[in-house]
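Fig. S4 source data, part A: sequence.
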Amino acid sequence: MGDWNAVVGESKEERYVGHYGSGIRNAHGEKLVEFCQRWNLYIASTWFCQDKHRRYTWTSPGENGRYQIDYVVAKWRFWNGISNAKTYPGADINSDHNPVVATLRIELKKVLKVQRKKVWNIDKLTDDITATEYQGEVNIALDGSWETGDWNDRWERFKDSVTHAANKA
């Protein structure tokens, strides 16, 4: 973003400036084009075919001239991310500039929440009292329920009892 007061003109400049600018390029326009070349940017406002009244962004006092001096500039990497850019000359914004609006197509990256596994402190089991409490909890949880059911049920009960005892200890 910046206030360049640049007129890049109607001439195409490689992949940085499109055919649909307005006016004749001035010195500030040259600097903007050089800036875009250096940082691999493109002036998106000049790549979309709009009527002449949808291109100008500033009207000089006294309605003497209309110029395109405000632009939407984006990284070349996101070339297909902007599908349109135009001005709204009839907007009531109490300024001599017209708002420049761009239509963006953005796909946000999906951020997955990672569930952290609970890590038990096994060093606590070296203490005789804690180890005895853990063993007692496992025995209570497994008491009598170990012999019944199929193997999957037995495994789930065993896993749940050991996990419950580890969380408690």
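Fig. S4 source data, part B ends here. The chain has a mean pLDDT of 82.
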